[in-house]
Amino acid sequence: MTNSSYALEINDLTVAYRNTPVLWDIDLRVPSGVLMGIIGPNGAGKSTLIKAALGLIPRAAGDVRFFGLPLRQARARIGYVPQRNSIDWDFPTTALDVVMMGLYGKLGWLRRPDKTARQTALAALEQLGMAHFAERQIGQLSGGQQQRVFLARALVQNADLYFMDEPFAAVDAVTERAIVNLLHRLRAQGKTVIVVHHDLQTVAEYFDWVTLLNVEVIASGATDSVFTEENIRRTYGGRIGALPAALSGSSEASAYVA
Amino acid sequence: MLPEDRRVWRFIGAVALSMALSVPLSAALGVQYDYTLTNVALGGALLGALCGMAGTFAVLRGQSLIGDTLSHAALPGVALAFLLFGREPLALLLGAAATGGLGVLLVNWLSGTTRLKQDAAMGIVLAAFFAIGVALLSYIQGRADASQAGLDKFIFGQAAAIIVRDVVTLGAACLLIGALLLTFWKEFKLLTFDPDFAQASGFPVGRLNGLLSALIVIVCVLGLQLAGVILMVGLLIAPAAAARQWTRRLEQMIVLAMLFGAFSGGSGAVLSALERGLPTGPLMIVVACSLVLIALLFAPQRGVLWQRRRLRSEV
């Protein structure tokens, strides 16, 4: 195989909006098989990074490779969970139907999802504890349940590399646990998962790899060595609401609270 | 199939049956379906069905008002085509499509590159194109050959002018667009529900978007002569909006929207042809909006009365 050992490799990526850089000269290497969190303050470009990598928004410059391949050739190995609030949940469709959408890409033109597709989608819903809600109209689900439907849809994509945009945002405890379990299962299968995350408290618990981002990459690497008070301060500037409990023990830390 | 889905399909069957029965019923009440009126009824119904197909996607994509911009912006195209080529149907259609499409592109360009928000851009483009259209129309009316022009019918629509060729055109459009929707059903569904995910899955979202927008343009342009530029958008939106109330499946929504559209278009056209000088567009819209009102009030789950009753039972 021509694959490099990196699941994701980004070189010199720059994205601009109305001549203002949103992402500046990003270089990033994510090894295969890690659970990586992307953290940074609001407006740091976390979601933009994912979208630019997946070609959903135009990039001003830069090169992105997945397992050593350009996007076009690696597409079938990539799964995506968009932000939950990016779509209209009043759309007339059911949870099961949404999950089956994860199979459309591999079906190709003219083919429709069949019984097997249905079974695959049901099994994915089952894994997230959502089998009972398969035939619910998606607008009647709670926020956490909607998030689990999105995750089930990504699951049936059967990808090697997953991008998840804020899956933990505003979800209930049951959903949070379901997502964490799913992440662990994916890692056990050797998958790579990249998660945009907003909660500093849980970074060390959920992720073994972390990228601190604020327009530029501040630091990226194993959580143990990179997720330090110093790096967090450089990423958030004076805008930290609360440092992770594990790091904020010193009296010095409270000085960073704006 | 789930009981709830089966219930809705039965409801759709009942709707189709009662709408079909309205033909013999109106005939019994004295409406005479002679050759002309049959054409009028068929033309209106086919246009309504087309609007149901295109409108379902326009409404769900939040593009309802694009249809409004499009149809208003088509008026100067109709007038220009008449000035250049005379009363040639194909030329009028192409003229309408040209300025209508230009209007929509202009809205996209304005909201993309300037600080104007999309609603403001639509309002400005719609008014500007419509104003130019009305001015051109007045100029044409003042000319010697004005009496044959009859272009003022484009403002509120005129069904009495439907001839066999129009019915054939609308029928062919129904088949063509229906076939396209069937072919690309899962792609259009995914594109409408979650365009980012569609693109990440590898679908050519730009081209599919273009195709879907082209369908909406074609339907609007075909409807101009019958429904008129001012109210065309109503026939596009209302049947789909009414259909949305009764179901939770896209497949059912589009079938129901086609039925509602066909009934509104057909009955509106027949009503307007009964009396000389009755405008077609407004009558179609009155029927379509009555269906919306009924749906908003009485639909299970989503209807106002249903929700009020549930609220009361919970208290």
Give a nutshell description of this structure.
The complex is a heterodimer of chains A (258) and B (315). By secondary structure, chain A is α/β, with parallel strands linked by helices. Helix content of chain A is 33%, strand content 24%.
Q: What is the secondary structure topology, with strand pairs?
A:
The complex is a heterodimer of chains A (258) and B (315).
Chain A: E1 6-17, E2 20-31, E3 35-39, H1 46-53, E4 61-66, H2 71-74, E5 78-81, H3 95-100, H4 104-107, H5 115-127, H6 143-156, E6 161-165, H7 173-188, E7 192-196, H8 203-206, E8 209-214, E9 216-222, H9 223-226, H10 229-236, H11 251-254
Parallel strand pairs in A: 3-7, 3-8, 5-6, 6-7
Antiparallel strand pairs in A: 1-2, 1-4, 8-9
Helix pairs in contact in A: 5-6, 6-7
Chain B: H1 3-28, H2 35-60, H3 64-85, H4 89-113, H5 118-141, H6 146-149, H7 153-156, H8 164-183, H9 185-193, H10 195-200, H11 205-227, H12 232-246, H13 250-274, H14 280-298, H15 304-314
Helix pairs in contact in B: 1-13, 2-8, 2-11, 2-12, 2-13, 3-4, 3-5, 3-11, 3-12, 4-5, 4-11, 11-12, 12-13, 12-14, 13-14
